[in-house]
Specification:
It is a single chain. The chain has about 750 residues and is an alpha+beta fold. It contains 27 helices and 24 strands. The strands form five sheets. Strands 10-22-21-20-11-18-19 form a seven-stranded mixed sheet, sandwiched between helices. A six-stranded antiparallel sheet has the order 2-1-3-9-4-7, with no helix packed on it. The chain is elongated, with a radius of gyration of 34 Å. It is found in: Cell membrane; Membrane. This is P-type Zn(2+) transporter. Belongs to the cation transport ATPase (P-type) (TC 3.A.3) family. Type IB subfamily. GO terms for molecular function: ATP binding; ATP hydrolysis activity; cadmium ion transmembrane transporter activity; metal ion binding; P-type zinc transporter activity.
Length: about 750
């Protein structure tokens, strides 16, 4: 407010002086202009003293000298314009910072202060500081979720744009974990608080935003050092012009156009603008220093679980005793898995539910921590767990059984099933890549990141496929937290390094890196506190976007400084030569200042390397087609099972006929719908010449293989021995092609989102 009041005072005196001058009162006009300029000189002088006491050379010394010299030399109008330039520059800086920090300010302003607690059938209005874990809260339409908790009602629709930058409301089902700071975009719902408000997500975000607003950026300090040299150069040039010409007005003209406002203001405004832009994309950067360091990063280290992978295992394959069958084996395993909260158990239950299997309730269920489960299901003794768990019960996989699972175990984990004392099945679990991970790595490469390393506590066999799929430069597996710190420090010695992670074990490495990037959406509070950058969206590609934003902000800051100071240098030379009098020079410098600050604000806009994710119209059906992929993966599993079931007799013919029916009922309509609506919309967003052609070509090949299966089945009804070998080869080929197609399509469309209907 004081900046705007000072600007108003200078404007008032400037206009008054102009009126007096035009009214034939030049002496009174000079007094008015001087009265307007001298308070600004006092303000600048006080700031200069504080800078010197703080150990910094005040770069406003040139402006102070220009105002005082202009008053003493009778150039009161020039003094008033210089004062206007200084006061206007500060006001413009305040406005620019307000624009740049708008997203952070909005984050802090939206922090909930009141909550409605349900107790004994009544609604009590309480302050958020009174919320305790276990409280039942009522969140009404339009209200902000006051604390982290669990949804107690059937569903809720939340606007999470303040947290993630995503504009579309998100629907949650009963039991979902909700984060504070989201806004209720639907009917009222009940929330069971899991944390106090001060320990919830939004409170942590507000603390991060406050940290970001308070830090002074290294580039701003760098500008101070440059300004020192600029002040010295200005002094030499102005005194030289005076000495050569004997005209002190020449020295004044140089001082007037030499005010280094672009140098003082452009860097911090650009960096704060970058912080504001990042906040709008769900990326909280803890200050200009972190942003400036992020812009210089050349090496990125990634944690694996929860960062490059979702951290939630899924059932990838089932290898079962033919006498039992895959479906029956999964049903028994999922039945006992209901009694555990282990991620593998949850994956088995989810896989059974997706196949529509009804699960019996197990009896005599017991869980061995870190080992497995034992129980009775429909009269059968069932064991489910790691290989060591079965061996401790005197059960070992028979020779030849589970070969596929044992091969898969080299890169993943296997849950073994024993029924009535005999090994019955092996369930291969996989924690595959995040869909957006390959895109994130490619974008980092395009941004000039020269080295990308996977650092994980997992086994080398589990880490190698991830690194191979992403084409990473190195893999450091089996790393304890102390090892991760050592790895970060070793990489930092060669180049500025960023570490991306999400767990408690990553927090020390995040703190040790030049820049720690924490996955804050579902990561731990320890990681978020240790990181310099916190991703509020559960997408690893936002790390690459953060780098792009930082690079652009730093580049804009340098460009604004170079352009502003370059124009000031030209104006100084013209003034020293006597072609730019003090009053005209002051007006020119005012224009330069405005240009430099407005240019710095361009960091709020996305650059060429920050292309926004393409969005597809709702009628393209992106979400629906992706939802169908789970069923198609189950179909791929059925293709493999059908191929493996082919033997010397046509006993598998009914099951194969059912698989062929699923190809016609599920695969072909899915592909036709993609080519009708989804692919044309995606091609329009991707640009280029027919970008979806490879996927369409895969569609054609799969349809041809499906027709081949149908033909071979008709032959098999007449001559099974002749058709069986070719039918087996075709089913395996179709399974491999289908899995490859799903992976390729998901990666190609990973950066796209659906627009609201």
């Amino acid at each position: 407010m004081r900046r705007y009041m000072l600007l108003g005072w200078v404007l008032l005196c400037l206009v008054l002086g102009l009126a007096l001058f035009l009214g034939g009162l030049p002496r009174e006009a000079a007094w008015a202009w001087s009265i307007g300029a001298l308070p600004v000189a006092a303000h600048v002088g006080w700031g200069l003293v504080r800078s010197l006491l703080g150990g910094r050379v005040g770069v406003d010394a040139v402006a102070l000298a220009a105002i005082l010299a202009a008053v003493l030399l009778g150039e009161a109008a020039a003094a008033a314009v210089v004062a206007l330039m200084v006061a206007g520059g500060e006001a413009l800086e305040a406005w620019a910072e307000g624009r740049a920090t708008g997203a952070l300010t909005e984050l802090m302003a939206r922090a909930p202060r009141r909550a409605a607690r349900l107790e004994d059938g009544t609604v009590q209005e309480i302050g958020v500081e009174a919320i305790r874990p276990g409280d039942l809260l009522l969140v009404r339409p339009g209200e902000t979720v006051p604390a982290d908790g669990t949804l107690e009602d059937a569903e809720a629709s939340l606007d999470e744009s303040a947290l993630t930058g995503e504009p579309l409301p998100v629907r949650f089902a009963a039991g979902a974990a909700l984060r504070s700071g989201a806004v209720n975009a639907g009917p009222a719902f009940r929330l069971r608080a899991s944390h106090e408000a001060g320990a919830s997500t939004y409170a942590a975000i507000v603390r991060l935003a406050e940290q970001a607003a308070a830090e002074r950026a290294p580039m701003a300090r760098l500008a101070d050092r440059w300004a020192l040299g600029f002040v010295a150069f200005t002094g030499v040039l102005s005194l030289g012009a005076w000495a050569v010409t004997g005209d002190p007005v020449r020295a004044l003209a140089v001082l007037v156009v030499a005010t280094p406002c672009p140098l003082i203001l452009a860097a911090p405004v650009a960096l704060v603008a970058g912080i504001g832009r990042a906040a709008r994309r769900g990326i909280v950067v803890k200050g200009g220093g972190a942003l400036e360091r992020l812009a210089r990063v050349r090496t990125v280290l990634f944690d694996k679980t929860g960062t490059l992978t979702p951290g939630r295992p899924r059932l990838a394959a089932v290898d079962a005793d033919p006498a039992l069958g895959r479906e029956a084996a999964l049903r028994l395993a999922a039945a006992v898995a209901q009694g555990s909260t282990h991620p593998v158990s949850a994956a088995l239950v989810a896989a059974a539910a997706s196949r529509g299997l009804s699960l019996p309730v197990p009896d005599e269920l017991a869980e061995v921590a870190g080992g497995g489960l034992a129980g009775s299901v429909e009269g059968h003794a069932v064991l489910l767990g790691a290989e060591g768990f079965l061996r401790s019960a005197g059960i070992a996989p028979e020779d030849g059984f589970g070969v596929a699972a044992q091969v898969s175990a080299a890169a993943g984990s296997v849950a073994w099933l024993a029924v009535d004392g005999r090994p019955a099945a092996a369930f291969v679990m996989a924690d595959g890549l995040r869909q957006e991970a390959p895109r994130a790595v490619r974008r980092l490469r395009a941004l000039g990141i020269t080295r990308i390393v996977l650092v994980t506590g997992d086994r080398a066999a589990a880490a190698a496929p991830i690194a191979r799929a992403l084409r990473l430069d190195a893999v450091l597996a089996g790393q304890a937290p102390a090892d991760k710190i050592a790895a970060v420090r070793a990489e930092s010695e060669a180049a500025p390094t960023a570490m991306v992670g999400d767990g408690v074990n990553d927090a020390p490495a995040l703190a040790a890196a030049d820049v720690g990037i924490a996955m804050g959406a579902h990561g731990t509070a320890a990681a978020a506190e240790a990181g310099d950058v916190v991703l509020l969206v559960d997408r690893v590609d936002r790390a690459a976007e953060a780098v792009a934003i930082a690079r652009r902000a730093r580049r804009v800051a340098f460009q604004a400084i170079a352009l502003g100071m370059g124009m000031s240098g030209v104006a100084m030379a013209v003034a020293a030569a006597g072609y730019l009098p003090p009053l005209a020079g002051a007006l020119v410098q005012e224009g330069i200042d405005v240009f430099a600050i407005l240019y710095a604000l361009s960091a709020l806009r996305p650059g060429a390397d920050e292309a926004a994710p393409a969005s597809l119209p709702a009628e393209a059906g992106l979400a629906a087609r992706h939802a169908e992929h789970a069923g198609l993966r189950d179909l791929a599993e059925a293709l493999r099972a059908g191929a493996e079931a082919i033997g010397p007799t046509p006993a598998a013919l009914p099951a194969l006929t059912e698989v062929e029916h699923r190809l016609r009922a599920e695969l072909v309509p899915h592909q036709q719908e993609e080519e009708r609506a989804l692919y044309p919309a995606a091609a329009a967003r991707l640009g280029g010449t027919d970008p979806m052609a490879p996927l369409v070509r895969m569609h054609a090949e799969m349809e041809g293989q499906a027709e081949r299966v149908a033909t071979l089945l008709r032959v098999a009804e007449r001559d099974w021995p002749a058709a069986a070998p070719e039918l087996r080869r075709t089913l395996f080929a179709l399974e491999a092609l289908l899995r490859l197609h799903l992976a390729a399509e998901e990666e190609m469309l990973a950066g796209m989102s659906a627009e609201a209907a």
